[in-house]
Every structure is written in structure tokens, then in C-alpha cells.
Amino acid sequence: MKFKIEVGESEKHVIEFSFSQLAGNLEIRVDDRPVVQSKRLMNEPVREIFDLLVGEKEKVAVRIEKQRKPLIGHHRRVWINNRLAQAA
């Protein structure tokens, strides 16, 4: 699962999320800098929530929710300033 989203009005930032269920790698990058990295081999949590505060002058609250499906795959939701921006 990979996606990229741009946030901010006057101060733009790019957030990239990548997760491989097979390899167990998870990475969140803001403006090409890693802010969250993890690796799991077994026992992936059913639901994970990542809260980020992005920006210097213009603060943007970003919340990424990743929920595992029963067998394979994931649902994701991205909230920007407490408003749902993406769901898949």
C-alpha cells in the first residue's frame, strides 16, 4: 500500500506513506525525510494510528489510520485538520 498526499495552503508539504504487508516494512516520509519507520515479521496490529504535526508557520494536523482486513489487505483513512481527506 502506497500513497502520497500534499498538505498545506501557503506552506506545502508532501507526505508519503508506504507499507508492505509481505515484508512488514512501514515508512512515513514528510518532504522526503523519514518520520516513522518500523518493521514487523509477525503479529501485525489490527489497527494503527499515526498522528503528525506538519509545518513551521502553517501547522497542519495529519492523522493516518491503517486497519488490517481479516485475511489480506488494509483499509486506510487520512484526516487533515480533523477532516476526512482520503479513504480507501
Side by side, the strands of the main sheet go 1-2-3-4
CATH class: Mainly Beta
Report the major sheet: 4 strands, antiparallel
Record field, number of beta strands: 8
Instruction: Note the gap between the termini.
Output: 10 Å
Q: Kindly state the mean pLDDT as a whole number?
A: 90
Total domains, how many? Answer: 1
Share in β-strands: over 45%
- How many helices? 0
Provide the helix percentage: under 10%
**Architecture in CATH?**
Beta Barrel
The Cα radius of gyration reads 13 Å
Shape: globular
The CATH topology: Lipocalin
H/E topology pattern:
EEEEEEEE
**Structural class, from secondary structure content?**
mainly beta
Unreliable sequence segments: none
Describe this structure in words.
The protein is mostly beta strands. The protein has a single domain, classed as Lipocalin, CATH 2.40.128. 0% of the residues lie in helices and 64% in strands. The protein is built from no helices and 8 strands. The chain has strands spanning 2-7, 13-20, 25-30, 33-39, 47-54, 60-68, 74-80, 83-87. The chain has a 4-stranded antiparallel sheet with strand order 1-2-3-4, with no helix packed on it. The protein starts with a strand and ends with a strand. The model has no long low-confidence stretch (mean pLDDT 90).
